[in-house]
Amino acid sequence: MPSRTEAILLHIRDNIAFARQIVGERSASDFEHDRIAFYAATRCLEIVSEACRRLPEDLTARYPTIDWRSIKAAGNIYRHEYEGVEERIVWTTVRDFLGDLDTAVTTELARLEP
Predict the structure, then answer these.
(1) What is the pLDDT of residues 65-74, one digit of tens each?
(2) Which of 22, 25, 35, 87 lies deepest, with the highest CB count within 10 Å?
């Protein structure tokens, strides 16, 4: 059974991968017109945000270039200000802004291997 931290990291990794799969090679315009894809990708980002809130501080401190505060705050927008979530911002986030987080998660998962 994975440790709590490992489980959290796996949730982040899996939801980044799923969001990327959902967005795929769609253009921003195509994504904006696909409500199911938009909802699914937004849910993935919501899970990533919530999971990042649960990471230990010593882990996040190892990655000072990642904007943890914004990642954590985004979940509040997805949950409570959902009517203001824009399709193009979700598309851009998935396409362009998950790389550093994904790399950090991969690095941390490798550190946990026996």
Answers:
(1) 999 999 999 9
(2) 22
